[in-house]
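Severity: low
Component: inverse-folding endpoint
Summary: output formatting inconsistent between runs
Steps to reproduce: submit the following structure tokens with default settings.
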């Protein structure tokens, strides 16, 4: 192709070139256009490393892929996907760079990148697709040429990654060729979401498509009919723009079409056009309504600010919405709603996802193993946070401790169920292991790590931490060589100084007592009471800091803390970098810790209210009196019911009553004979109550009358 172009420039009056289709051709023709001052129009270059200021004669009559990357990133942000996997062709390096930049601006991470050569075999593609099932990320962006991209979806369905919980998005490199797909390929792409430059449906477009089909049928009566895609429309509009620019210049000055025979300094056989600069200027000012929409060049690129979002369903595509550069995501182009920029996908029409699901994929899932691999440390010594035991029969790993309790409670607060299994680290209980070595096993061996793992900046390079569930710090704990002595507080001062202080306090107390004797007895201040004055002599400020350390509590006074405490980031759970589980577990941990804080705070406030306020003391006293009265009332009612159920005609019961009455009367009538019996009798009468005692005396009298 290069030789043909050079030959045309040497022997023909060429005023413009339309047609370079890859990056190598773009670079060559851009340099050629600068040398001969001739516009070079490309209808396939969606992006380029060539600067427009340095290559003014290179014109791209296609939308810029950087704008498409922004639309793609906003769509993923609207669906709340925080990580995506990109599958691309190796030659599309520049497009991928712009796509990565757009995703970073909206804080979406490219978790994995799969690059395929254009001539990749099916076995290699299936092997790479099989790796997708082992990843947590379930959102895949495909940016490939149609030859490889259409084969990719046939193989993806065989691998099993076109089912529920998966989301697939294709760019215009594939979406512009969907009309040429066969039935098998289209069936494998059901539920795929796509984005492409918006081409309005106009009468001119419909008329042109009919003429195109009619001509294709006349030229090819046996083979398949080649459908017209967006690239064909851009070519038609580019040629129309070039012809319109030439006509506009010819109307003003027809002599400009002559070719100047100036020689180029590097190649004397090439001619420099004096018509090229004016043609380029006129082409930049050309605006018209073409088949692909409004044609206008801005900085050497087609000004395309609207992209269509569609869904592959059945035998066609369903338009579900649009993305406009200055408006964001919208369901309708001509909507009269708010003009604010929107990133919400709620305005989009209903979407059918892979697997005929209407539920939006959350963007991630537990890997194909089916369980979340939770790593826990198996260690000696301090096991209050994590204590690992192995079932000898099933070899199943069990764990208990404070960290495990936080993890299990957080699982209950998640909005989705998670099946997990504990996998212990340090099988042989080697004392030389480290937490850093354990964290380096993420994500190869563990999907997350639960334990007393300190959040440190060096570790945050290769793992992501949740919010801390407990504070932590570094402090020096040393052995307490001196035994505990209750008189340790007297050590700072000598005995004679202590004696002087004590004598001074007593003298001060005596002086205050003598001076305050003149105060009248009408003074009601509690501190003025004589019994309160000596207490004021011995009071001194005392500060208590409660810092219950489990280690010190376990070993009592054998160790002690010295020096300041250096705070760290706290204890947290570790995840792979960019894991979507981080945000979910962080929120659950906040709910757990805030719930504990509210419970403790409420109990503390209630206790202070009841003990420190007059109202609280009254409420407490009333409550105690009420409980006491209830207990006494129940006891009295129980005794009354027992006494009222006595049968007066029962002689045996009368004898029992006499037996009860006689020791009571003995105790009451002879208090001096036996002091102990008298006390017991008082207690019994007090417990029975005066009403019950009268009942007993009345029943005794009636029994005596009957006996007489």
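Observed output (run 2 of 3):
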């Amino acid at each position: 192709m290069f030789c043909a172009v050079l030959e045309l420039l040497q022997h023909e009056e060429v005023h413009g070139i339309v047609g370079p289709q890859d990056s190598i051709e773009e670079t060559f023709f851009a340099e050629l256009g600068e040398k001969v001052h001739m516009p070079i129009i490309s209808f396939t270059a969606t992006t380029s490393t060539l600067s427009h200021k340095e290559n003014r004669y290179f014109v791209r009559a296609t939308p810029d892929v950087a704008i498409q990357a922004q639309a793609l990133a906003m769509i993923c942000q609207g669906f709340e996907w925080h990580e995506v996997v990109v599958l691309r062709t190796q030659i599309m390096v520049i497009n991928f760079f712009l796509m990565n930049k757009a995703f970073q601006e909206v804080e979406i991470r490219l978790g994995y990148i799969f690059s395929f050569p254009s001539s990749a075999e099916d076995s290699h593609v299936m092997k790479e697709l099989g790796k997708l099932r082992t990843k947590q990320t379930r959102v895949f962006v495909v940016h490939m040429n149609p030859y490889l991209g259409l084969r990719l979806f046939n193989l993806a369905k065989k691998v099993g990654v076109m089912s529920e919980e998966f989301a697939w998005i294709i760019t215009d490199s594939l979406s512009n060729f969907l009309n040429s797909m066969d039935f098998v390929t289209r069936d494998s792409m059901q539920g795929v979401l796509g984005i492409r430059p918006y081409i309005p449906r106009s009468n001119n477009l419909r008329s042109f498509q009919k003429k195109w089909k009619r001509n294709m049928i006349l030229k090819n009566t046996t083979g398949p009919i080649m459908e017209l895609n967006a690239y064909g429309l851009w070519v038609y509009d580019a040629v129309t723009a070039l012809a319109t620019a030439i006509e506009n210049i010819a109307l003003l000055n027809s002599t400009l079409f002559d070719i100047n025979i100036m020689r180029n300094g590097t190649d004397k056989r090439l001619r420099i056009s004096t018509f090229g600069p004016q043609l380029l200027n006129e082409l930049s000012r050309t605006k018209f309504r073409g088949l692909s929409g409004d044609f206008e060049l801005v900085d050497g690129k087609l000004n395309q600010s609207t992209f269509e979002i569609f869904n592959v369903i059945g035998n066609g595509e369903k338009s579900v919405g649009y993305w406009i550069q200055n408006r964001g995501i919208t369901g309708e182009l001509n909507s009269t709603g708010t003009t604010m920029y929107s990133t919400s996908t709620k305005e989009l029409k209903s979407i059918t996802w892979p697997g005929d699901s209407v539920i939006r994929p959350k963007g991630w899932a537990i890997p194909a193993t089916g369980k979340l691999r939770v790593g826990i440390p198996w260690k000696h010594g301090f096991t209050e946070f994590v204590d690992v035991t192995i079932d000898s029969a099933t070899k199943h790993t069990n764990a208990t401790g404070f960290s495990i309790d936080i993890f299990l409670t957080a699982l209950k607060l998640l909005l989705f169920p998670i099946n997990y299994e504990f996998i212990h680290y340090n099988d042989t209980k080697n004392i030389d292991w480290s937490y850093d070595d354990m964290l380096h096993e993420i994500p190869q061996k563990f999907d997350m790590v639960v334990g007393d793992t300190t959040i440190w900046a060096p570790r945050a390079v290769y793992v992501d931490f949740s919010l801390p569930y407990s504070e932590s710090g570094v402090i020096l704990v040393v052995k307490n060589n001196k035994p505990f002595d209750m008189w340790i507080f007297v050590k700072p001062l000598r005995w004679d100084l202590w004696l002087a202080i004590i004598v001074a306090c007593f003298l001060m107390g005596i002086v205050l007592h003598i001076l305050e004797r003149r105060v009248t007895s009408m003074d009601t201040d509690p501190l003025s009471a004589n019994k309160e004055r000596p207490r004021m002599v011995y009071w001194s400020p005392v500060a208590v800091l409660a810092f219950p350390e489990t280690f010190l509590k376990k070993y009592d006074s054998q160790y002690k803390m010295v020096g300041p405490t250096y705070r760290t980031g706290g204890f947290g759970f570790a995840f792979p970098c960019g894991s979507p589980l981080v945000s979910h577990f962080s929120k659950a941990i906040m709910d757990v810790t805030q719930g504990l804080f509210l419970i403790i705070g409420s109990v503390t406030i209630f206790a202070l209210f009841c003990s420190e306020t007059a109202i609280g003391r009254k409420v407490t006293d009333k409550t105690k009196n009420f409980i006491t009265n209830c207990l006494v009332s129940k006891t009295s009612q129980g005794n009354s019911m027992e006494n009222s159920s006595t049968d007066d005609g029962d002689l045996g019961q009368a004898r029992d009553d006499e037996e009860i009455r006689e020791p009571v009367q003995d105790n009451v009538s002879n208090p001096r004979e036996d002091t102990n019996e008298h006390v017991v009798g008082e207690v019994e009468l007090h417990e029975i109550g005066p009403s019950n005692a009268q009942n007993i005396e009345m029943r005794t009298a009636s029994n005596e009358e009957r006996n007489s």
